[in-house]
Structure formats: structure tokens, C-alpha cells
Amino acid sequence: MIDFNNKEVFKLKQNEEYGEMVTELLIDSEEIIDAYKSMRDGVVFTSKRIIAVNVQGITGSKKDFTSLPYKNIVAYSVETSGTFDLDSELEIYFSALGKVKFEFNGQASILAISKVISEHTL
């Protein structure tokens, strides 16, 4: 599992490859909203949860998938990109895990992700 306490900030860039990695984990009617990659790890936002992908080992063939259901979110904050600051941020507070912060570089579906989170938490 990704150590969210010591690695709370992920600088993410859109990457469809991580969406392909999690397709076998999806349940019926669950759809991928968007997929992102940091240095080695990735995050996939689906219609039901966030799946964090922790790539392990020298070759990267071993992977740990952590499922973070939207139903466990107690609060979240969204910061959209601006004219000069192209990064956007998403802070999520999970009931048992605490705060997880994602920073997106470049284009991100931050408002679409926010809408899905709202649909599951409100």
C-alpha cells in the first residue's frame, strides 16, 4: 500500500496506461473517469473509487493496488488551474486514512472528478 502519511503529495500527469492496468479490478457498471501517473506510481479515478497503483521493485513488474471508495470520504477540496499556475489540486479527507493530496500537472479532469466525488458523498 502507498504510504500516504509520508507521501501525501502526488504530482500527476494524465496517462491512460494506468487505466489499462486496473481494468481487471473494475466491477460491473464501474467506469474509468481518468488515469494519472507520477514518477512510477499512478492513480485512477473511477465512477466508484480511487485506485492508487504502487509500482514496486527494480523492474516494476510487482504492483500494489489500493482501493479508496468514495463512500469513505468525509470532506474534499478542489483548486483549479489558473492563467499562470497550470497546476490543480485535490485534497481528500478519508474517515480512517486521513488526508490525501493530489497535485495535477497540466490538463486534468478535476471538475469531472469533483462531480463524481460529490455524487457519492452528498
TrEMBL record:
Q: Which domain of life is it from?
A: Bacteria
Among InterPro entries, the record links this protein to:
PHb, PHb_sf
Instruction: Report any Pfam family annotated for this entry.
Output: bPH_1
| Gene3D superfamilies reported for this sequence | Bacterial Pleckstrin homology domain
Instruction: Describe the location of the Bacterial Pleckstrin homology domain by residue ranges.
Output: 13-120
Q: Cross-referenced PANTHER family, in alphabetical order?
A: BHLH DOMAIN-CONTAINING PROTEIN (PTHR35796:SF3), HYPOTHETICAL CYTOSOLIC PROTEIN (PTHR35796)
**Mind telling me what this protein is named?**
PH domain-containing protein
Q: What organism is this sequence from? A: Thalassotalea euphylliae
Higher taxonomy: Bacteria, Pseudomonadati, Pseudomonadota, Gammaproteobacteria, Alteromonadales
